Amino acid sequence: MFALIRALFFGALGLLILIPVGIVLAIVGLPIVAIVGVLALPVLIVLFIVGLPILLVFAAIAALLGATFGVVMAFLSLGVVVLKVALLVLIPVLLVGWILRRLFAPSDPYRLRI
Length: 114
Known about the structure:
Elements: H1 2-39, H2 41-50, H3 54-104
Helix pairs in contact: 1-3
């Protein structure tokens, strides 16, 4: 039973550690996307001169912005889910385990009573 609780606790803790890593990767990735967009600008100009409709350019820009926004929101929603799991599941389970351990643990004469 305690192995399951320990796995849940450290799994949630691992997710809490991975959320800032994901946010840092998103923050690093956004300027890279901007640089790639600037590098692709001459190709877009050539395609526009050749006859690419303005609607396709705006659709591509909207798709890139939507994908970027979706990635950032996915990381944020993952953080909210991890916090909900930690607050609503793991904390009560840890409290019940601590109370049961205090009730049913064998007394140890060498242990300090604090």
